[in-house]
């Protein structure tokens, strides 16, 4: 019996959280219309599911191509991005917007996001808007209220690029979006670059939007194939 306990104890393996973290970032060039961005990002995912923000996902490419073609919608706006990841969308927006706040909840992702903002600030193409990073976990009312206290005028646009891939996070995402939209009394919209990966997720997103009193409208002409999947730009407003 004593020997069995010893053998069992020997089988216990403790792994530091750094075991799951891949921080082999590569400086990568992205071109959207006439806009060229250089960012640090991973070329493949970490083993930790929570670190998806270290990559540039297909929906972010869809979003940025759409924004670069419709830059007038960004002129002079204040923008907050949810699930900003490495910052490819927010940094593009900073070339046109009045104010850009990039948010994510994972500390490791926030580190690379800040590095990319520093990289962009030191580049030859200075942004026309200050880029600010805030920690924001979806559904966390305390953090949402803290953000709104720091930015009492609210935001003209809420952006999300390829951020719907985990079913349990969708209600929390839309809780957050609803609070941001209602803070401006409906004078705000949520622009989502959505990539369809499962019919169940498609249905869940529509159902949750309706339950949160939101209307979803597909932007005509934006449906396209991204990364072998179907993507589309959706504008979400309060009913």
Ordered list of secondary-structure elements with their pairings:
Blueprint: H1 2-10, E1 26-32, E2 35-41, H2 58-69, E3 78-82, H3 88-93, E4 99-104, H4 107-121, E5 131-135, H5 141-150, E6 157-161, H6 170-183, E7 189-196, H7 199-211, E8 214-218, E9 224-226, E10 229-238
Parallel strand pairs: 3-4, 3-6, 4-5, 6-7
Antiparallel strand pairs: 1-2, 7-10, 8-10, 9-10
GO cellular component, one term: nucleus
Organism: Rhizophora mucronata (Asiatic mangrove)
GO molecular function: protein methyltransferase activity
In summary, what is this structure?
The chain is of the alpha/beta class. The chain has a single domain (17-238), classed as Vaccinia Virus protein VP39 (Rossmann fold). It has seven helices and ten strands.
């Amino acid at each position: 019996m004593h020997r069995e306990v010893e053998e069992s104890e020997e089988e216990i393996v403790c792994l530091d959280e750094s075991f799951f973290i891949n921080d082999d970032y590569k400086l990568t060039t992205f071109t959207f219309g006439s806009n060229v961005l250089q960012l640090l990002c991973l070329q493949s995912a970490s083993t930790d599911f929570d670190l998806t923000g270290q990559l540039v996902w297909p929906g972010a490419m869809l979003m940025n191509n759409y924004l670069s073609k419709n830059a007038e919608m960004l002129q002079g706006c204040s923008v907050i991005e949810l699930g900003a990841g490495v910052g490819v969308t927010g940094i593009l927006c900073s070339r046109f917007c009045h104010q850009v706040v990039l948010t994510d909840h994972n500390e490791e992702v926030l580190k690379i996001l800040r590095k990319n903002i520093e990289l962009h600030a030191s580049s030859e193409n200075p942004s026309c808007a200050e880029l600010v990073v805030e920690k924001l976990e979806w559904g966390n009312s305390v953090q949402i209220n803290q953000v709104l206290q720091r930015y009492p005028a609210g935001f003209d646009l809420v952006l999300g690029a390829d951020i719907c891939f985990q079913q349990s996070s969708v209600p929390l995402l839309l809780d957050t979006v609803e609070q941001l939209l209602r803070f401006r009394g409906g004078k705000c919209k949520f622009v989502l670059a959505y990539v369809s990966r499962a019919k169940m997720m498609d249905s869940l997103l529509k159902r949750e939007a309706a339950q949160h009193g939101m209307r979803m409208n597909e932007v005509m002409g934006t449906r396209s194939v991204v990364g072998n999947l179907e993507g589309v730009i959706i504008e979400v407003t309060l009913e």
